[in-house]
Amino acid sequence: MERVMKDDTIQEKGERARMASFVGAMAIADLVKTTLGPKGMDKILQSTGRGRSVTVTNDGATILKSLHIDNPAAKVLVDISKVQDDEVGDGTTSVVVLAGELLREAEKLVNMKIHPMTIIAGYRMAAECARNALLQRTMDNKGNTDKFRSDLMNIAMTTLSSKILSQDKEYFAELAVDAVLRLKGSTNLESIQILKKPGGSLKDSFLDEGFILDKKIGLGQPKRIENANILVANTAMDTDKVKIYGARVRVDSMTKVADIEAAEKQKMREKVQKIIAHGINCFVNRQLIYNFPEELFADAGILAVEHADFEGIERLALVTGGDIASTFDNPESVKLGHCKLIEEIMIGEDRLIHFSGVAMGQACTIVLRGASEHVLDEAERSLHDALCVLSQTVNDTRVLFGGGWPEMVMAKEVDQLARKTPGKKSHAIDAFSRALQAIPTIIADNAGLDSAELISQLRAEHHKENSTAGIDVITGNVGDMQKRGICEAFKVKQAIILSATEAAEMILRVDEIITCAPRRREDRM
Amino acid sequence: MVLVFDEFGRRFIILREQESKSRLRGLDAHKANVAGGKAVARILRTSLGPKGMDKMLQSPDGDVTITNDGATILEQMDVDNQIAKLMVELSRSQDYEIGDGTTGVVVMAGSLLEQAEKLLERGIHPIRIAEGYEMASRIAFDHLEHISNKFEFTATNIEPLVQTCMTTLSSKIVNRCKRMLAEIAVKAVLAVADLERKDVNLDLIKVEGKVGGKLEDTELIYGIAVDKDMSHPQMPKRIEDANIAILTCPFEPPKPKTKHKVDIDTVEKFQTLREQEQKYFDEMVQKCKDVGATLVICQWGFDDEANHLLMHRNLPAVRWVGGVELELIAIATGGRIVPRFQELSPEKLGKAGLVREKSFGTTKDRMLYIEKCANSRAVTIFIRGGNKMMIEEAKRSIHDALCVARNLIRNNSIVYGGGSAEISCSIAVDAAADRYAGVEQYAIRSFADALDGIPLALAENSGLPPIDTLTAVKSQQVKEGNPHCGIDCNDVGTNDMREQNVFETLIGKQQQLLLATQVVKMILKIDDVITPSEF
Questions:
Q1: CB B23 within 8 Å of CB B528
Q2: Which of B400, B430, B452, B496 is the catalytic position?
Q3: Which of A18, A328, A348, B109 has the greatest CB tally within 10 Å of its CB?
Q4: Who's near A51: CB < 8 A, 6+ residues apart?
């Protein structure tokens, strides 16, 4: 064939292209497969950057994010896992595994000479049918607050059980549910602050009703204030430059320098006076506070905190109900924040500022303690997953059982659809059902159980109407998911099914891969 | 090039660095060019039609694109061959001109080249072939006009438009919800269309995508969605009956464009400057407030102080809005873009019934919706989908559908799809060929054969026996005198495209023919290729 493309371009066609993408996608799925389920294993990731820092994790999205992948099909899977993380927060491993299984089944069908388009058509029908099956079996306890809370607890515990926090899952589930319920339906997880402090054990972690700022109180300022009026600000407290463009100081004698300096000081003093005039006794600034204004604040008996980060400021404003101010000319119209008590507390060896008795309880802080940085990082990721799922569930209150129950329910319906459908499509629908059943199989395998035996038992159970059976990994038997309290959010499951099918479809449609020559970089090494 | 004389006074020409250049002439050049063009066409051939496959492309930077859009494939393919580059141009010009049929035009050109190759082998001069093709394309062009139908639609009866858009979308990955997307595309086009002038400005339709959710969540917003949020976290997230000030000047201290310096050398100057500055911010905000604005949309950044003052005065603001979006907002809300605070006046404000911030997923992604605008002639199509590649492909598909709808509004003639138009043209051209004496007759017949290339590819991609299917359809067309018979790609059971509701726009088809013929003519006229060798 005539050469059309550049020298290093790789072009793969037809069967070869399809094989390349199947292999790539399955390799990725197999990679994360072992982390699935409550008995899933963790992975160690070592970065190639400086310091060779190490991450220990079980979170699919985190693992896939850190991989350097060259196979374009694999990149599709990494992308769906990332989207799953952003959209619902959990199920990042499951979505990749399901997509991998769908492609594995598709490969068999392609080898049987079924056209990819036929497979896609079958998969689409099956996915739609699976989703409807789930929809019919969802439980919704929106009206009943107590029941809903216990649903949330169950979901949190199920999510956490596959993570490092599984030992104390009840404790953390409680933390997470409390934190999310405080948000009152908002999905803005920014207002839940997670502080990590090495030392102690995971059990020592706690949820604080108030707000903890990881900053120190300025020298000579009160360490404890009751009934505090807080001004939250974002303003320059170092030199407060004149911002008009092109302005510069040019003087011709030393005395003038001194004059200007005095004027500058005067300006700062006035600013501080204005701030104090708000009637506050605590001042929190996002930017630096230089020694001079700090001293002025100390003289006035005001607690001043400098260099709080932007998120900290936002959260503080949120909890205390104050405005974030940058000008101070109209003290009467600036809303101040209030809290009952500000004090300095010690966690481990660090001193932190604790605001308690805040006006609005929408934000809170979870302090994580643990033996090492790695444990804490993983604990944070696990907790983040749980928080995401919960916050999504608060909005979409439909709940399903876990432990392979949804997969079996879907598989059953899809199986029936396959029997009703004439034509080659039914092979694809069958394959979809097999791929769904692969998930409980993997969960059982990872727990070291006899998966073939368990799955067949489970399938028999599900043949009865309205079964609630699933795999109980702890006892290694088929158990009643309702009694065990293993729940999952409908939204998560739905997202898994839809995006896994979509990804599999995309990869199946490809019959040619063209890899352009990598862009040449100048050698900087 | 240097002209030199040898010792006998004979002239000869020395080409500079002749050894390092490769050169092809005569028939070899023709053959090489034809082969190059065919190679490109072959890549796209499998993407044609509703059962066409996608291509996965990895860019030099490692980004993955999965698509079935001819123009996108060729653009990303990074071709090196000169003739292949011509083909890329060809598909791009179809994209610019019509927006749809970018794959078809390349396959058509490839098929024409293939036929030309056979004629070249028989020793027919390339110019004669080119002329024959030109005549044939004119016949086909007129024939298309002849078999086309007028499509009546009104602003209320959009069904015909939707059907045509669905034909376009059915070959894309989004065909799962083609009906919905087609409706969205048609409604969007009708919302911005000027039915009297028969013109549509596609710039008024913004296509925005965000990963997450599913394709079915894609929506049409009668207004603008901007990927921005309020500048201050405590500003209200929902504003009703907003009066919008659209600014292109920053809420920052003035920066005169002329070079200047303000020297501070006394304490007084320092103080006055300071006061000036404070007053300046105050005035900026006050001016916006005075004209009655309840929302400020600004192209530039805000100073911290200004930001606070805005919040303080209860004036929500959005910063760093891109220029294009700003224009769209101005069009939609009927406001004017104001470059200076001094020029703000109440009549320059835009009006919108509802402005709200919407957050997505678990990350802090937020978007600003500006809806119920005074002049709802700017709309946004907001695409959701499972992953980034899906969104990108959906965007391209929607673009195609929008173009088709626009073309139909410009000219409401349609031809039937599924290869039926090509087959009908092929019959017409073949019949007309006998009327021409001379070598051109051969070329015209070849043109007719080349037209068969598209239905052949369609049948092949759909898993049908290509030659059997084509000949059956062709004889049916002749026998029944029905130019609407095409390839039954979706296995519906009938091959009358009118019953299947498969339409394409007349101008799209005509353009395909003309562009393909033009490029082939150009390629045929090349008889010498000089390439500087690699160094």
A1: yes
A2: B400
A3: B109
A4: none
**Closest Cβ opposite residue B253 in set A79, A245, A260:** A245
Share of chain A above pLDDT 70, in %: 90
Taking CB atoms and an 8 Å limit, are B53 and A510 in contact across chains? yes
Cβ distance B390 to A506 less than 8 Å, yes or no, reads yes
Stretch 314-353 of chain B: residues touching chain A, C-beta under 8 Å: none
pTM of the model as a whole: 0.83
Report helix, strand or coil for A255: helix
Residue B179 domain-assigned? no
Query: What does the DSSP assignment read for B120-184?
Result: HHTT--HHHHHHHHHHHHHHHHHHHHHH-EE----SS--HHHHHHHHHHHTTSGGGGGHHHHHHH
Pairing of strands B149-150, B365-373: unpaired
CATH number at residue B258: 3.50.7.10
Q: Flag if A2 and B39 touch (Cβ within 8 Å).
A: yes
Q: Name, of A244-258, A444-458, B287-301, the range with top average pLDDT.
A: A444-458
Chain A, 74 to 133: residues with Cβ < 8 Å from chain B are 75-76, 79-80, 83, 85-89, 115-117, 124
Domain boundary among B321, B345, B375: B375
Residues near A262 by beta carbon (within 8 Å), at least 6 away in sequence: B267
Mean pLDDT lowest among A331-335, A486-490, B33-37: A331-335
Return the pLDDT at B19.
65
A10-140+400-515 carries CATH number 2.40.50.460 = no
Helix ranges restricted to H, A287-344: 291-299, 310-320
Q: Which residue has the higher pLDDT, A286 or A494?
A: A494
How far is residue B131 from each of residues B138, B444, B449, measured CA to CA in Å? 11, 9, 16
Close Cβ partners of B108 (under 8 Å, ≥ 6 residues apart): B450, B451, B453, B454, B512, B513, B516
* Closest CA in chain B for residue A95: B386
As a whole number of angstroms, the distance between CA A241 and CA A267 comes to 10
Contact: A498, B386; criterion CB under 8 Å: yes
What span, in angstroms and rounded, lies between the C-alpha atoms of B161 and B409? Answer: 9
- Domain residues for the domain of B331 are 225-375
In the stretch 389-408 of chain A, residues with CB closer than 8 A to chain B read: 391-392
Give the whole-angstrom CA distance, residue B91 versus residue B97.
10
Examine the domain organization and report whether B370 and B424 are in the same domain.
no
What's the structural domain count of chain B?
A: 2
Contact A245 B56 (CB under 8 A): no
Residue ranges per structural domain of chain A: 10-140+400-515, 211-360
CATH value of A211-360 in 3.40.47.10, 3.40.120.10, 1.20.140.10, 3.50.7.10: 3.50.7.10
